[in-house]
Design a protein that fits this description.
The protein has about 260 residues and is α+β, with helices and mostly antiparallel strands. It has 4 helices and 14 strands. The N terminus is likely disordered.
C-alpha cells in the first residue's frame, strides 16, 4: 500500500446532465477489501479460539465527480462463490445495481442524483471525525487518531452495550474507511461472541480503473422487487413477504419513473 499526501477539497463548477452544478469535488481512490466473519459456533468456543471465515471480497472506487463503483464477490461457508454483485452511481444520474450471477440489474437515470452526490461530498478536515453516521457525537462514542496501513486515520468506536463498532477513516482518501469492525457481545460476560471485520487489502489514491464503471452488457433490467425476489429465491428458495414487498414499493415507483435501459 502506498501512502499519499492528503488532497484538499475545493469547490468547482461542473456540468452534469446538461445543467451547471456547484459541488465539492471528491478525492478519487480505489480500495480492495476482504470481509471476514465468525463461523457459526464462534460464540460457543473459548475466548480467542473462534475462527473467522472469508465472507466476501470487495472493491470500492470513487472518481473526482462523485461517481462510485462497488464490486462484491460473496462466498458460502464452504468457500464456493455465492454471488457476484455490482453497484454503480454515476455523476450523470445513472444508478445501477446488478447481480452478475443471475444476469439481472435494476437501472435508473434520476436527474436529482447529481445534486445528491454534491451534498454527500465530505471535507476531510471536518467530516472524518464527526461520528460514525454523520450525526453529532454521543456519549457512547470514542474518537481517537491511529496510523493504519501507513495512513493517518480517525478511529471511531461506538459502544452499544450489546455490540461495539469501530471504523478507521483516512482523510488522505476522502474519509474512506480502511477498516470496519463489528463485535457482538455476550450481555452477561461482555465476551465477544461474533465478529464481522472488513479490512482494506490494497489501496490506490488517484483515478480508479475505468473498467469498474462500465455498465454491464446483456443484463436484464428488472424492478428492485423483482431483483430482490430473484436473489432470495436463488439464495434460500424463499419468496418475499408482503412486508418486504411493501418496503420495496417506493423503489419500484422510482424505477417506473426513471427506468434506464442502456
Amino acid at each position: 500500500m502506498r501512502r499519499n499526501a492528503c488532497a484538499v477539497i475545493r469547490l468547482a463548477a461542473a456540468s452534469l446532465a446538461g445543467a451547471s452544478v456547484l459541488f465539492a469535488s471528491w478525492i478519487p481512490y480505489q480500495i480492495s477489501y476482504q470481509h471476514r466473519g465468525s463461523e457459526p459456533d464462534y460464540g460457543n468456543k473459548p475466548e480467542g479460539h473462534g475462527k473467522l471465515l472469508v465472507l466476501a471480497d470487495l472493491v470500492r472506487a470513487v472518481r473526482p465527480d462523485g461517481s462510485q463503483a462497488e464490486w462484491e464477490t460473496s462466498y458460502r461457508l464452504d468457500g464456493s462463490v455465492d454471488y457476484r454483485h455490482r453497484t454503480l452511481i454515476l455523476s450523470n444520474g445513472i444508478r445501477l445495481r446488478g447481480n452478475e450471477t443471475l444476469g439481472l440489474m435494476t437501472s435508473i437515470k434520476n436527474p436529482k442524483l447529481p445534486g445528491v452526490l454534491a451534498r454527500q461530498a465530505l471535507d476531510p478536515s471536518k467530516s472524518c471525525s464527526v461520528s460514525y453516521d454523520g450525526s453529532r457525537p454521543s456519549q457512547n462514542m470514542l474518537i481517537s487518531q491511529e496510523t493504519l496501513f501507513g495512513y493517518e486515520t480517525y478511529k471511531i468506536l461506538i459502544d452499544m452495550k450489546l455490540a461495539r463498532r469501530t471504523v478507521w477513516r483516512a482523510p488522505a482518501l476522502g474519509c474512506a474507511e480502511l477498516r470496519d469492525l463489528f463485535e457482538k457481545l455476550d450481555p452477561q460476560s461482555g465476551r465477544v461472541i461474533a465478529v464481522g471485520d472488513r479490512v482494506a487489502t490494497d489501496t490506490r489514491a488517484g483515478e480508479p480503473d475505468a473498467a469498474l464503471f462500465e455498465i454491464p452488457v446483456g443484463f436484464r433490467n428488472v424492478s428492485p422487487s423483482e431483483l430482490v425476489a430473484a436473489q432470495s429465491k436463488n439464495c434460500c428458495n424463499r419468496d418475499l413477504s408482503n412486508a418486504q414487498l411493501s418496503a420495496l414499493a417506493p423503489r419500484d415507483e422510482e424505477f417506473r419513473k426513471f427506468r434506464f435501459d442502456p
